[in-house]
Design brief:
Order of helices and strands of chain A: HHEEEEHEHHHEHEEH
Oligomer: heterodimer
Order of helices and strands of chain B: HHHEEEHHHHHHHHHHHHHH
Number of domains of chain B: 2
Strand content of chain B: under 5%
Radius of gyration of chain B: 26 Å
Distance between the termini of chain B: 96 Å
Structural class of chain A: alpha/beta
Shape of chain B: elongated
Distance between the termini of chain A: 36 Å
Largest sheet of chain B: 3 strands, mixed
Structural class of chain B: mainly alpha
């Protein structure tokens, strides 16, 4: 939508008609402007994933039961100066979109998706699952730092060089007992988009001074936990800029990318 | 065209001159409907979730119930909307999120003298909630930050000079975390003054002694002045407890015709059992000047003197400056006169005496420890000390 507005507006005002000298110069300027505008917009379409797999799963004889933990989702809108406004509506949209997309993906893999029964209080988890949840969060941070971090950090743990080698241990036992599931899937998703003013400002400041102001970004993290052993089987990090984050197909696309390579 | 500069000036004045005004919250409203307020509530809820399961949360039904009770008393009709969490953090702070989730730190419970003073702080926070200061501040920040960029851009277009806007902060991080860290607690001077006034009304209406309100700030100012604190406590990071605020509260109290309770005995009943643990946390920060001022005030009040002298001894032992070992030994001995003395006092006394090469006395202190503590966990270690002592 932002893309359409910016480019459409420029094109409308500078339609290519007669080709006298002034027009040529104007056309050259326009081409340059458009080319420069395309750079941030080009960046905008780029989404990367970095999956890691600890080990291939043994082939299952019956459909695997995968428990989807409540996804941790936040969507914000950035004002001109970058002050983020958390958006409850977009967060709900992203959350629902993620769950749908996960259900479809798991179905394709021939697995059965089980939904986590949210607790009614402030904390959505049952008290006895909290230890595993909190431990997962810490392990996630560790993986992000030492697996996905800068080269220096990836080399910082000599005993963790062989691959994905983390586990939540016995803490997952209460979850396994309550849901009789084989695996648990955790999702963390953050997205930011810009107001129209910020997008315009980004375009202007890029054309004039070459500053790149990111206008839209999504970051996702997925992990698959073996509920029998607690081992982290697979992780994926999605990072990228794209302008369609608030459209249902955009969310679906992000989620499919995030779950690409799921070893089920 | 000639009106253009004038129009710009008017526009700038309108945008820059006034902060956003939002109305007071009506009691019993469940969910906000407006976009930015809904967003803030969502982020606050996330922050609340992490606080609710935090290891720092005080899990003591008696204390939690007590603090929630005082909160209810001052917030009256808003009581069901406010959820208060006591957190084990050694600093003076209380914070209110826009959705009514409130934190009270143990450092605050140590630094207020009675229930009326605690109520003053809780009422101040309640005022931030009912007057929707979080939302107001958030919207103002959003507008002014945008205006700042717009102004810079305007200057650039005008060719006055290149001001580098730089890469503007871009965060997809957890907004809830920012709230938890007090990102939104940086209220404006006007908001603080308003919360002081409104909070005062609430605490007086709840039946607390009006004169106690100003004492909270007086105690804090004393601590800050005495220790020449480089950073004011977190709650006041933007607007420290000034003489002005203190005087305003004093004036309000003088004008008030009502009497009220201080609630000291209830406060002590709820907090005294936990006080030693909190003092230990204060000492762990190694901000010895602050803890010394705090201990002096508590000793003056005279509750559980044995425990207080013990922690004062601990302060000297941990500080380890010139003459501190002797001071520590002397203070531990002072502690031993009182029934509330912790049993570990004998052990610590033994250790400082040993370090001061007073071996005979050290031996005696360790023996007393073994005798009074009745087979403590570290008995084997103390036996080893006794063997090694020359």
């Amino acid at each position: 939508m932002i893309r359409g507005t910016t480019l459409g507006g420029v094109q409308d005002r500078h339609g290519f008609r007669a080709m006298n000298g002034t027009r040529w110069r104007r056309r050259y300027r326009l081409t340059r402007t458009l080319a420069m505008l395309m750079v941030p917009l080009g960046l905008a379409a780029c989404v990367q994933v970095q999956p890691y797999l600890a080990k291939e799963l043994p082939s299952a004889t019956k459909p695997l039961r995968v428990l989807l933990m409540p996804p941790d989702v936040a969507a914000v809108e950035l004002a001109t100066a970058g002050v983020p406004l958390p958006r409850a509506d977009w967060t709900a949209l992203a959350q629902a979109g993620l769950v749908d997309a996960v259900a479809d993906t798991l179905r394709k893999h021939g697995a059965e998706m089980i939904r986590y029964r949210r607790a009614t209080g402030i904390v959505p988890y049952a008290e006895k699952h909290l230890e595993a949840i909190a431990l997962h969060e810490t392990v996630l941070q560790t993986i992000l730092t030492y697996r996905y971090g800068a080269a220096q950090q990836r080399a910082a743990l000599p005993t963790k060089q062989s691959g994905l080698d983390w586990t939540l241990g016995e803490s997952v036992a209460p979850i396994r007992a309550d849901y009789a599931a084989d695996y648990a899937l955790f999702l963390v998703y953050r997205q930011a988009t810009s107001t129209v003013e910020r997008a315009l400002f980004a375009a202007i400041s890029f054309v004039l001074f070459g500053f790149i102001h990111p206008t839209s970004q999504s970051v996702g993290f997925a992990s698959l936990i073996d509920l029998n052993t607690g081992a982290v089987i697979w992780t994926n990090l999605l990072q990228g800029q794209s302008l369609d984050v608030n459209r249902p197909d955009g969310i679906r696309n992000r989620c499919e990318r995030l779950l690409s390579g799921l070893p089920l | 065209m000639k009106y253009c500069p004038l129009a710009m000036l008017v526009l700038t004045a309108t945008l820059g001159g006034c902060s956003v005004q939002v109305g007071k919250l009506e009691p019993g409203r469940n969910q906000p409907t407006e976009v930015s307020e809904r967003g803030l509530w969502l982020a606050s809820r996330k922050a609340e979730q992490s606080v609710a399961i935090s290891g720092r949360r005080v899990r003591n039904p008696q204390l939690e119930e007590y603090v929630a009770g005082v909160q209810c008393r001052v917030s009256a009709a808003y009581c069901p909307e406010i959820r208060v969490y006591t957190m084990k953090v050694p600093d003076f702070n209380a914070a209110m999120a826009p959705n009514g989730f409130e934190q009270v730190w143990t450092g605050l419970l140590l630094r207020v003298d009675n229930e009326a003073q605690l109520a003053t702080v809780l009422a101040h926070e309640t005022a931030h909630y009912t007057l929707r200061h979080g939302l107001e501040q958030f919207q103002t920040t959003r507008q002014t930050a945008s205006l700042l960029l717009a102004t810079q851009l305007g200057l650039l277009f005008g060719g006055i000079g290149v001001i580098s806007a730089g890469p503007v902060g871009f965060s997809t991080g957890n907004i809830g975390q920012l709230i938890a860290m007090g990102y939104l607690a940086a209220y404006s001077r006007e908001q603080e003054a308003e919360a002081d006034r409104h909070g005062f009304e609430l605490m007086v209406k709840a039946g607390y002694a009006p004169g106690e309100a100003a004492k909270v700030w007086a105690n804090l100012i004393e601590e800050q002045r005495e220790c020449a604190l480089p950073n004011p406590p977190a709650l006041f990071a933007s607007h420290p407890p000034s003489e002005e605020r203190l005087q305003n509260l004093r004036r309000l109290a003088e004008r008030s015709s009502r009497n009220g309770i201080t609630g000291r005995s209830d406060f002590l009943a709820a907090t005294l059992p936990k006080r030693g643990k909190w003092l230990r946390m204060e000492l762990a920060t190694r901000r010895f000047c602050r803890v010394r001022v705090l201990l002096e005030r508590l000793i003056e009040q005279g509750e559980n003197l044995g425990e207080l002298y013990y922690y004062r001894g601990e302060l000297y032992r941990l500080r380890g400056g010139t003459g501190d070992l002797e001071r520590a030994a002397e203070t531990y001995r002072q502690a031993l006169y009182y029934p509330s003395v912790p049993v570990t006092t004998h052990r610590e006394l033994g250790r400082v005496l040993w370090r001061a090469n007073r071996v005979v006395e050290a031996r005696r202190a360790f023996r007393r420890y073994l005798k009074t503590a009745k087979s403590p966990d570290d008995a084997a270690m103390i036996e080893a000390y006794l063997e090694r002592l020359p």
